[in-house]
């Protein structure tokens, strides 16, 4: 009887038939999809509330700059309320002074700039008509019209992003007041705000969240201070180069507005100072001629080389700890998603996320619940 029976072998479960490599890939895949989905939803929500998020982010950057200054004054014996007032009023005074200075300089030099631009256009047109290219007035007008249409088309995104910062909600003043209000509260009770945020998480997660937040804050404050230093070097280098160039060619107009534009543009890493430096080249071309414009272009490129090969690797690399290639793509992605605000906030957001993820993933919150600058930047 036993010989007549066939021995049946049970088929292996379907899960065991899947190769281990495919199991690992599947496990990674669905987790990556969940992360990407959460990021997409977060970006969508931020875009919907951008008129609130942008002032909040600006306030965080200002607080990262002003809180260390306020704490310095408090350590020197100043009353806390007086340190807050000095930090806020001093910041407003500096920003207002720069705006007034630029406006006065531009108003004083605009008529001459307009006249010089028309003269430069007439000279260029005359040169083209007399050149071997055999162009006519109709050809020049057609080419200029096409160039102007291209500029308008390419600048539409820039204009829309600028407008979306302040006028979608109605007033630029609203965003300014939100920024001022948030910055003031960060200075008054920033630690209390952070304790409230940490309290929203489960009790077992609070040490990791608290330590990661402190690590991110250290990185952000270091980034802001270093970025101001880099922007100042760019502004002084290009501004001083324009002024020295003017000594040899009868004066260089609008040096101060150009330096301020370079300073502000440098807060958008990689491309900001280069684009604002193009303004100096244009002014040199209009006022002084082609040769000074070429020299001014060389000055701008030299300053950018010093920043890219010395300041960024040695100074900014220590503060941000993000590869320059990642910085370039972060700025590009931020600009594509949210225009100028996205390009401005891309690098600090990436830098903070980089430190926070590394801090939590390495379990450093167990051994370093209160990280310091030396813990984060000492091995750079």
Q: Gist?
A:
The chain is mainly α and 380 residues long. Helices cover 83% and strands 0% of the residues.
Describe the structure.
With 380 residues, this protein is an all-alpha fold. The protein has a domain at 207-380. 83% of the residues lie in helices and 0% in strands. The chain has 13 helices and no strands. It has helices spanning 14-17, 20-48, 50-75, 80-130, 137-166, 172-199, 206-248, 255-265, 272-287, 290-320, 324-361, 364-367, 373-377. Helix 6 packs antiparallel against helix 7 and helix 7 (206-248) packs antiparallel against helix 11 (324-361). It starts with 13 loop residues before the first helix and ends with a helix.
> What class, by secondary structure content?
mainly alpha
Biggest beta-sheet profile: none
Mean pLDDT: 79
Share of helical residues:
over 70%
Shape: globular
Q: Cα distance, first to last residue?
A: 79 Å
| Percentage beta strand | under 5%
- Radius of gyration (Å): 28 Å
Write the element-wise H/E pattern from the N-terminal end onward. HHHHHHHHHHHHH
**H/I helix tally:** 13
Q: Please tally the β strands and state the result.
A: 0
- Low-confidence segments, ≥5 residues, pLDDT <50? 162-167
